Amino acid sequence: MVSCDRHHLGNKHEDNEMPPKAKAAGKGRAPAKRALAEEFPQGEVLTDTGKKSWKLGSPIGQGGFGVLYLADENSSKTVGSEAPYVIKVEPSDNGPLFSELKFYMRAAKPDLIQSWTKLHTLKYLGVPKYWGSGLHEKGGKRYRFMVMDRFGTDLQKKFEEGGRRFPKKLVLQLGLRLLDILEYIHEHEYVHADIKASNLLLGHKNPNQVYLVDYGLAYRYSPEGVLKEYKEDPKRCHDGTIEFTSIDAHKGVSPCRRSDLEILGYCMIQWLCGKLPWEDRLNDPVYVRDSKIRSRNDVSAFVSECFPSQDKPEELEEFMEEVKTLSYTDKPAYQKLRSILEAGLKSAGAKDDDKLEFSSALNGARPLTSAKKTLKRKQVVDYKEDSNDETDQTPPKKRKSPKKKGINGVKTTEKAKKTARAKKSSPVKVVAKPKDKLVETGTQTTPSLKRPRGRPKKVDRTPTE
Predict the structure, then answer these.
(1) What is the pLDDT of residue 427?
(2) C-alpha angle 398-402-407 in degrees, rounded to nearest 5
(3) In this structure, how many other beta carbons lie within 10 angstroms of the beta carbon of residue 153?
(4) C-alpha–C-alpha distance, residues 92 and 78, integer Å
(5) Would residue 43 be called left, alpha or beta, if left means φ above 0 and alpha means ψ between -120 and 50 degrees?
(6) SS3 56
(7) Which residues are identified as catalytic?
(8) What is the per-residue pLDDT for 202?
(9) Residue 84: pLDDT above 80?
(10) Nearest 10 degrees: Cα torsion 203, 209, 213, 219
(11) Between residues 10 and 52, which one has the greater pLDDT?
(12) What CATH class has 153-366?
């Protein structure tokens, strides 16, 4: 699978170059619903602006407005399942692909990525390469298309398959790869603004590589090197994916470099602990915004809330503290942030070996439900099952299940059995304590395996609520 367009709370377009707008349905009303792309037959040939021809294979995904196809350079051969490219197609009146195209054409050309990778001695850079784009007419309709690299599965699928938990080593490695990606796109005047697991795809041929895709919300924060000014706009509040989007976006401020790093921090914490504190009320953007503001004001308390039953990941707390110091126009200290995550790997006894291991059993990662929590749940169930005895108010943790074998729950030997029989034949004196009723009569010295009925209440032993 490859990335598809996804629904967002908002959609931004940078510069003054805007796509054709859909006609409004009426004054004060939302724009008319955008049309979906029709499905083209396999073998359809598209020609890009550079006069290069591309042949479509089978469709492999559909998003909000576009369809994705396997593709290859035009030839007499049929495009098979191992095609190295994908083509995203949508009606030309739509906007998301137009916005993505501006980013790809400016910042994702293969020679730019190759030069950066070589200059910074990286093994690879997780930014999809732009191979071409253009317009295609069919049936009297115009379609916009873009040719990109093909990728594998997305990390959200991996996250769900792993019980919504990633191993610590993997989380820190993903953080390091994303810092490489963000530094590159930031240096090329853009911010991504929508980092999340579903927008991170593994390499098609190399699953140990990860790529950040879907630049539909990408914003040119520094056109021609001129930084945008901080300005709150109530009409643009809460743009992005609600659980991860930055405080700036919640306030209607255009995203900046610190916004991307804040989002990355939220992602790493969720991947490691399983759930962010505000995920229970994602339908309330103001609550989510205020929760994030409180978390920024007290990063230590926020991290403690996310990891109540295990050691706090100090490197993630330090990462968030560093991001907190950034002003709207500051350039992040990318190398310092890398050092923080690398120190976390070292303290965990791991290293960045370029292998992305998703198994939750690795690197000391704990499952979402610990054995301790499972035991506690089991005790509560047992207590409820036995709670019909109104005279028994003993808390579940103090109650002991009777053993079926032996005397007093102890496995007996032949010698012990003879001793028990001898004692059983002797009379037993029953001693009553002052203010207590007799609770046992007869000659048996060992307590019954069955709980006596009608046991009188002992007020002085009943736990207070």
Answers:
(1) 52
(2) 125
(3) 15
(4) 27
(5) left
(6) strand
(7) 194
(8) 98
(9) yes
(10) -160
(11) 52
(12) mainly alpha
